[in-house]
Structures are given as C-alpha cells and as structure tokens.
Write a structure and sequence with these properties.
The protein is an alpha/beta fold. β4, α3 and β5 form a beta-alpha-beta unit. It is globular. The protein is built from four helices and five strands.
C-alpha cells in the first residue's frame, strides 16, 4: 500500500526571544491569539483573539501583506490553526510562536 504524500509547505516558526526582538524593534507584523477567551483575558501578549474553532471565520482580519505570528499556550493549537489556514488559503506569511505563551513567560523570567 502506498502512502499519500501531502504537498504542504514547511511551517515557519519564531521563538519567543525573536518575537520580543521584533517588538522591541517596532517591526510591522500581526499577532493572532488562537486560545479561548478566558485564556486571552487571563494573559496575553497583545494578539487579536481568534479562537482556533473560529479562526477560518476571521479570514478577513488576517493580514496577507506582512508577517502574521500565531500563538496559543504551548504552540500546538497555533500549528493546527496555521495548517487549517494554509490548507484553505494561499498564505505564506504565517509563523508559529514556538512554545506559545509558556515559552514567552519563561523567556521573560530568564
């Protein structure tokens, strides 16, 4: 039996330290938080709230002409969100925040 090979582009990622540097340098990018509203209310790093289950319905709010950094708590839901978006739309500007807000908090403590 032959396995089907998916023609997916490699997912881009960014570390918490790299994101903090972009912010410090005032670079132009969009932040998207795919966590749930209660998680966003408890702690966020400034991203627009677009929960994973609703991310496709927010397509008109996602920028296409600048980097878009997608994050969640650990980086798993944001990977799923990016896969969903890239499967349906021709995005090539999406970046996953590796380790999510947990990595962000750890990098701030260090």
């Amino acid at each position: 039996m032959r396995m089907k090979i998916w023609n997916r582009q490699k997912m881009k990622s960014i570390t918490a330290i790299e994101l903090q540097q972009l912010m410090a340098d005032k670079k132009d990018f969009q932040l998207v938080d795919v966590r749930e509203p209660d998680e966003h209310d408890a702690f966020n790093i400034g991203g627009a709230l677009m929960p994973l289950a609703e991310v496709i319905s927010h397509i008109s709010e996602i920028q296409k002409d600048r980097p878009v950094i997608v994050y969640c708590r650990k980086g798993i839901r944001s990977q799923i969100a990016i896969q969903k978006l890239q499967d349906k739309f021709p995005f090539n500007n999406l970046y996953n925040l590796t380790g999510g807000t947990e990595a962000w908090k750890k990098s701030m403590d260090g």
